[in-house]
Design goal:
The chain is mainly alpha-helical. 48% of the residues lie in helices and 0% in strands. The chain has one domain. It contains five helices and no strands. The longest helix has 22 residues. It is elongated and about 90 Å long.
Length: 154
Amino acid sequence: MTRFLRPLLVLIGFMLLSTSTLAETPFPTIHEPSDESKKCIHPEDEMRRNHMNYILHERDETMHEGIRGEPEGLANCINCHVEPNESGEIAGIETKEHFCSACHEYAAVQIDCFQCHADRPQKYIDRSKHSSSLRDQLQRTLAAAEAATEGARP
């Protein structure tokens, strides 16, 4: 009896999985830019499949050849797709509302771009909160290192 029951159950299982009544997992929502005059540089389905290839190619050109400002640059994507919400807050990469987070969570892929790159558009980054510029910080660090070196000399 079990000899006939097992194949029958397997067949029923395949039939259930293949029916269109089962819901498919929806794609994540892509935040479109509010400025409708802006269009993505590639169609959405192509960007879903190939964006990492564009970013890696851009990275190689930037790092090895010094070419900057290409349309596939990460900063261009962020500047276009990351905008403030209704209350004026801008989602950071650590939140589910960030443009990149939804797809990366869907695909179970870790995002490491923002260890170095800004996760918000440059126009929304408030630099007045910093007490000093990067140059001032560098000069203070170098002066402290020099003073430590002079203090260690006999």
